[in-house]
Amino acid sequence: MLHLQAGNIFLHDGIKNEVYKDNLKSLLIHINSDEKLKPIKPYIMFAVLARKTGMMQKRKHFMPNLKTIFQYQEYNILKDNGKNFNQYQSELELYDHLRRAYFEDADINFSDYCFANLSPLSEWYYLYCEPNEKIPMTLGRKIYLSKPLCFPRLLSFEDYEQLNDIEAQMYDDAAEKLENQMLDIAEYLI
To answer: Tens digits of per-residue pLDDT, 157-178?
Structure first.
């Protein structure tokens, strides 16, 4: 885990910080010992490290309230204050690294769902960056990108609408299942 932070601007200060290392170790032990949390370790680690960096680095024996990471985190993605582009880019890279690091041990679909739907970072990426990585998308973004814009003449309007309805239902079913999982975990953490 510590090798991941070396490449992330907002985590770099924690490399030699003993408080941070101890808090990170405690968090990992807590997640790994809980069968409900372990499958979504990439998202949990991302959310804690992105949202609670200062507390993890400065407060001894800090254990974040994990229920709060299952609440939507607002970012003002439409306004550039000069710093947020690098911050958002770094956070996206962190999630991508965590996702890859825990790929075999985690429920990646569930982690991706939480990442895409609990902050606007995913949407920021697809609005302002040239997508070259597989960053999770919201349902709306998936439907928007999957419309067969390349072949509009091959489909009638009715065919196109029916295709969208079928696709939307598939995504809705999957999203409902993932949202229920997220709610179960949030209730579990009460």
So the answer is: 565 555 556 656 666 677 777 7
